[in-house]
Amino acid sequence: MSQEKAARALNIALRNYQRLEADGNTPNFGNLVQIADFFGVSMDYLAGRTDNREVNR
């Protein structure tokens, strides 16, 4: 998936998405939830707290 498509899907500016990927920007809580939901992973996985991508519900 391109950065443009991901940014559009998350409703954030392309530059902001690029900063997230480059580790130059920390997402706020709302964006973190949105990213986890979009990619179908847990927030712990995004934060590097687990290698398990699955969401426990």
Q: Which structural class best describes the helix and strand composition?
A: mainly alpha
% residues in beta strands: under 5%
Mean pLDDT: 88
> What is the ordering of alpha helices and beta strands?
HHHH
Major beta sheet, specifics? none
How many helices? The count is: 4
Shape: globular
Q: What is the total tally of β strands? A: 0
Distance between the termini: 26 Å
Percentage of residues assigned to helices: 40-55%
Radius of gyration: 11 Å
Unreliable runs? none
Description:
The protein has helices at residues 3-10, 14-21, 29-39, 43-46. It contains four helices and no strands. It is globular. The longest helix has 11 residues, at 29-39. Helix 1 crosses helix 2 (14-21). By secondary structure, the chain is mostly helical.
What key phrases describe this protein's structure?
single chain; 57 residues; 0% strand; mainly alpha; globular
Produce a short descriptive summary.
The protein is built from four helices and no strands. It is mainly α.
Topology (elements, then pairings):
Elements (H helix, E strand, L loop, with lengths): L2 H8 L3 H8 L7 H11 L3 H4 L11
Helix pairs in contact: 1-2
